[in-house]
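Work Package 3 (structural annotation) set out to generate three-dimensional models for the target panel prioritized at the project kickoff. During this period the team completed the workflow that converts sequence records into discrete structure tokens, so that structures can be stored uniformly alongside our sequence database. As a representative example, we reproduce one entry of 142 residues exactly as it appears in the project archive.
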Amino acid sequence: MLGAYERSLDWVFEHQRTLMVIFALSVVVTVYLYIVIPKSLLPEQDTGLITGVVQADPSIAFPSMERRMQAVMAAVRHDPEVAGVAGFVGIGDTNPTLNQGQLSIVLTPSAERSDWPASSRACSAAPPMCQASSCSSSRCRT
């Protein structure tokens, strides 16, 4: 095994220019294909789900963080385009620290929603600690 590795390494060192040309061509072809391939092959999806994170000061106590999450969830629920909200606080697989809470916001069907993203409206109505961290709706730009 070591002998085969040594022979292949020797071959690479003997053909450095050839390999650099192949590498450069690979980069050029990759950029060309990125530009040329139509982006319409990737369909836009609207799953109607927004995930968010509520963060607080690292020294926050659990009851305070729980109240903060309840306030954010109540504000998000007031949006007519939100079908449901679920959230949790505490340390776990997706929450590394106590000062973070995870939100899952389920939106109404896309045909019933306006063009303005619900995440922006919900977070503008929520307390200042609310900020949508990712959105799987194609219309969300938060």
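The first strand starts at residue 46 and ends at 55.
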